[in-house]
Task: structure prediction
Amino acid sequence: MKILVAGYQHETNTFAPTLANWAAFNRGDDFPAFIHGRAMLDKLSGVNLPMGGFIDAAKARGWKLVPSSWCGASPSSYVTQDAFERMSASVMADVNKGGFDAVYLDLHGAGVAEHVDDTEGELITRIRQVVGKDTPIVASLDLHANVTQRMLHQADALVSYRTYPHIDMAATGELAAQLLARRITVGRKEPLHYRRLPFLIPLNAQSTWMQPAGALYDALSELDKHFGTCLSFCMAFPASDFDECGPMVWAHGEHAAEAVDRLFALVAEPTQWKLEFLSAHDAVVQSLARASRAHMPLVIADTQDNPGAGGDSNTTGLLHALLQQDAGKKFPGQIALGLMCDPQAAKAATAAGVGATISITLGTAVPTFTGQHSDPPVTGEFRVRALSDGQVTLKGPMMTGMAVTLGPCACLELDGVLVAVVSGQMQMLDRELFRMVGIDPEAMKIIVVKSSNHFRADFTPLVADAKTDIIVAKAAGPMAADPADLPWKNLPASMRRKP
Result:
C-alpha cells in the first residue's frame, strides 16, 4: 500500500485580533514550520503528533508513505486566503501526481479562512474530486474540531483525540491507521452516524483531567469495545463564528447509530458542563492566602490570553494583579508568570545583558471581544535575570520530544515577580519553557500560566491538590472563557451559547 500523507493545523478564533498569514505557518513557534517531502517523515516520526503516530503505525504495517506537506500555525484569527491557498496548492500538486492507494490527513478541524468557513472540509473535498470516490481518505482531528457534515461525508473515516491536554496525539494517528486498515479490509466506507450537541462547552470545562470529561471518555472507550465501533466526541472550539460550530459525536462501524445514541445521552446533559471563574484580583488574593501555608506551588491559568486559543500571549491583567497585591515582595523570586510574548522587551534585555536593569514597557493592550482593550502595559525598571536563544526541547507529557524555537527570550524581574518573556508565541504547557529562562517551577510559590488546560499535563504533578491549587482566572483578553460573552453573528439560534 502507498499512502499519501499531509497535514494542516490551525484553530481559528474568529474573534481574535491577529490573522494567520503564510509567515505564521513558517515560523515554527509551537508547531514545526512548513515542511515538504521526505524531510516531513524524518522530522515528525516519533514525535507526539498525529502524523508521528501514523508514520510509525504505517511502517509497522509495511505501508509505503508518499509525503506531501505538513504545516501548522498558532491559534489566532482567520487564516488568510493567501495562506490557505498556498497550503492547499502544495498538497494538491502532490495529489495530482497520483501514484498512491489512499490518503491520510493530519488535520485540526477548526480552521476558518477569510474566504472558506470550513477549511478542512474544503481540503478534503478538493482531494476527493481528484482521487474519486473509491480511494480511501482518512483524517485525524483535534478534540476541539468543529466537525462539519462536509468533512464527515467527504472522508471515509475521521477520528479525534480523546484527551485534553492532548497527550494522545500520536495515539490518534495510530487510530487513524487502524481505521484506514479497516476501510481497506472491508472494501467500502463503513456505516457512519453522527449527532451534534445543542450547546457550546467552555474550554475550561473540557479537560479530561477533570470531571465530567474524564468519565465520559472512559465511557466512550467502553462503548467502542461493546459495539466494535470507532467513536469520537469533539467538544469543539467555541470561538469560531460559523454555522457548524459546536460539539459533535460520531462513529464508524456496523453499530454506529447505537453507539452514538448511547454516548450522546451521556454527554448532552447540560448542567455537568457549567463552570465558575475568578477575577484576576480574586485569583491572586486567594492564591497568596494559600501560598503562605502551602509546601507546593499553586497555579493560576490566565485563560483569556491563551495563545493556544487565539490570544497573543501579551496581556497584563494577571501581572498587574500580582504587582498590586505585592506578591513578589511577599515571596521574592518565587512568583513566576509566562509566557509573555514581547519581542521588543526580549531584544532590549538581550542587548543589556544578564544583571542589567532596563526601563521598559512590557505587554500590550489588545482589542478584546467586549469591544474594549485589555489592561495597559506595565512600565518599570526590570532586572534581567537570565537570557536564552529560545531553543528548547519539550519533555512534558503533551509534546514530548518536540523542539521549539521562540527567538530571543529573557527572565525579567519586577518587584520580585519573575516574567518569562519570549519573542515567539506558545502557550505555557511544559515546565521546560520556564527552565529555558532559568526559572525553576518547583521552587515557585505561585505560577501564572497563559493557558487554558494544556498546562495541566505537566503542571498538575507540581501541586498538592488540583481541585484547590489550580485556579482559572478571567483577566481581560481575546479568548472568552465563557462562550456566551462573545458577540456571535453566524452561530445558529438553535445552538445555545451556554450549556
In short: The mean pLDDT is 96. The CA atoms of residues 270 and 394 lie 36 Å apart. Residues 169-186 form the longest helix (18 residues). The chain has 15 helices and 20 strands.
